[in-house]
Design a protein that fits this description.
- This protein is of the alpha+beta class.
- The chain has helices at residues 18-25, 41-49; strands spanning 2-4, 8-11, 55-62, 68-78, 81-88.
- A five-stranded antiparallel beta sheet has the order 1-2-3-4-5, with helices on one face.
Length: 91
């Protein structure tokens, strides 16, 4: 999936996103869930490749250089209920 706006691209994760993903998901102010906090590029790659099938998760990137600045996600909890959220780099 790809959605483009004037300044952003929302797309599926790619391996090249690991460095940017680590930059913001290792920071406690961005990610308050300790179980999801990343500590290495390897853990970022695992995060990208091990997305559960029931979780919709997409990279949000700057259009000018395709660098990841955050992600958005949604998880269906019940037939009529979704849990939605996002993480964005502080910088």
């Amino acid at each position: 999936m790809i959605i483009e706006t004037e300044h952003l691209i929302i797309r599926d994760f790619q391996e090249k996103d690991a460095v940017g993903l680590l930059e913001y998901l290792s920071h406690p102010r961005v990610n308050c869930f300790v179980s999801e906090r990343l500590c290495s590029e390897e853990s970022a790659l695992a995060y990208i490749s091990n997305t559960p099938k029931e979780l919709l998760r997409y990279a949000v990137c700057l259009k000018e250089d395709d660098f990841i600045i955050g992600d958005v996600f949604a998880l269906r909890e019940e037939a009529d209920t979704f849990n939605v959220g996002w993480h964005f780099n502080q910088r």
